[in-house]
Amino acid sequence: MVDYYAHMAALKSITDAFGAQVADPKSKQTFITIQDNPSYAALGTLIDHLLYHSGTSRIELRRLTRASQLWRDIREYIDAVAQVRSELESMVQDSSQPDIVVRYNAIHDTLKNYLQPKFTSLVGRLQSLFTQLRDLTHIVPHGQGADLSVNQWNWRDLYLSRASGLFAETLYKKAMDNGSEEAMAFAYGVSANYVSNAVGSNFQNRATGGARRSHPHRDRVAGYSIGAWIRKNMAGMQLSTTQLKSLLTIGSPVNPLLPPDIKTILEKSLTEVYGVHGLTNLPDLDKGYRNMLKHLELLDSFKPLLVPQMIDNTVYIKILSSGTTFLDAPPGTPPPQDPAPSSGGGSWTDDIPWWAWVLFAVCIALVAICYLIGICAPAQKDPYPGPFQHDEDGTSAVRSYLTSDESLQSVKFMFNLHMQLYDMANTSLRVMKFLGLVYPEDGDLPAVEFKQFTQIPFKEVPDFKKPIIDKDMFLGFPASAEEMPRIDHRPFFPGDFPDRIFTNPNQSDVSTFGSKLWMAQLQGTDADKPFNLSGSNLNLDSDREFLQLCWELATGGSTLDNSLNFNILGYTKI
Questions:
Q1: Helix and strand numbers, DSSP H then E, in the chain
Q2: Which end of the chain is more exposed for a tag (fewer CB within 10 A), N or C?
Q3: Which residues of 254-281 are buried (b: 16+ CB within 10 A; e: fewer)?
Q4: Which residue segment(s) compose the domain that 316 sits in?
């Protein structure tokens, strides 16, 4: 399953290609209908995410909500530190300012009664969150990868890997029977989803090193890394997840509801395709819609921190003149951001578990505590004296302090504290990106942890790999056994970037397949195989060869077997 941005890029590329082909009045009207109903087309394009959020994403949403709340509080805390720094440096520059005692006592109160006690709570919450994330259960593997029977699969996996073409065909017919422009736009969006998953998942699997069923955690980070690359590099994709949420919000922004006609079309299609096989416990589509919107909102809540400002030049010169120097960097250094691969194509990620980054963040937090409570001060002096009396003597004492070397030490301590908090927060956020909770930012993409997924790797043996033993090592390219039987590498080759998903020289791409499928649906005919929805079911995880048909394990088999023993499913079989 590809991410939000890959799906939206697919919808745009198919719409553009389809629009370039329209000639007769019927196709022109269809093109206009899709363009005039962007919310419904986008909703159809994200049908797999809606199904995922109908229940399967429960743990992820709970943990993401907790992480979002913590990030908000960390931002507020660091903003308070920045404000104290600004006030202190202003007073050190000019101690003759009016109300100097009131202003100094205010920052002293913030330090002693807010920053110091609050920090312990924040670090405790951060450690607790990472401890909870340790089990990685916020990412739900494909049911097939766990060798579950089909009746134990979630609806995301059923849609992706069972009767996918039959479902898309059934839904399209019911939408046409409905006749509304909204239903038609939704149905064409679902068809776009079918194509973007069938093609895009193959690229994602190749960058991952194997199918989602084998490498669910790498697959998630790959999906978000590819999505971030698309957001940065492809025209028309520079939208935030909040903007995407707004596009998908139909009706009241306060209480958005899945449109009744769309819900009916979905429920009837699911019942007709899957209900006949006993899968009658339909997903909660309203819940899926609300949760998807909530997920998009949460993803956009991790706003980057402002880089701490350097100490004012005037004050900095005073610090140098006083002989006061900055302390060395805290003990411990992070793994390199983008090390050169070894001759074998590996990097530090092949040998270091993701958990090492958590330990580094905790290390930074301990250094921050050192500055915060003042024990890093020379001779154990309190770098934050006060409060002072609101009288002439108090004013004199404050001004005396603000013109002393001790105040310069306080400025230095506050700068060091600010930097340590900034590093701690960013390292913690980086861990959340490694874990596939949030998207990488543009500036993260050159780092090897994310870059490895945005280009088909140059590997001596680029075949799909079986599951790795140590799940904590998922940041490294799998060194496990190659999955047999081996598969064809087309249409993606080493060095290809994600834009090849949408257009490529072989025309084995989303825009070509998708525009042809839309035109065939409009004309009431079948698209070329295997996109003939009336006779083929593509595995939308593309977890074997390119455009793999839906398959099941041979009796008594396991996805852990090597060679994998499987059979192609009949059109109506699940």
A1: 20, 2
A2: C
A3: eebebbebbeebbeebbeebbeeeebee
A4: 61-138+312-434
If you compute the radius of gyration of the chain from its CA atoms, what whole number of angstroms results? 28
Do 212 and 253 reside in the same domain of the chain? yes
Angstrom distance (rounded) from CA 93 to CA 415: 15
Report field, pTM of the whole predicted structure over 0.85: yes
Residue 573 lies in a domain: no
Residues 246, 162 share a domain: yes
| Model pLDDT for residues 438-475, shown as the tens digit of each residue | 999 999 999 999 999 999 988 755 689 999 988 888 98
Cis omega (within 30 of 0) on the bond before 467? no
Same domain membership, residue 159 and residue 50:
yes
Kindly list the distances between the CA atom of residue 494 and the CA atoms of 189, 210, 273, 451, 490, in Å, as whole numbers in the listed order: 30, 15, 38, 13, 11
Q: Alpha-carbon distance 41 to 185, whole Å?
A: 5
User: pLDDT tens for residues 152-207?
Assistant: 999 999 999 999 999 999 999 999 999 999 999 999 999 999 999 999 999 999 99
CA distance 210 to 465: 5
Structure tokens at 271: 């019942």
Domain ends where: 417, 434, 451? Answer: 434
Within a domain: 565? no
Q: What is the total count of domains within the chain?
A: 2
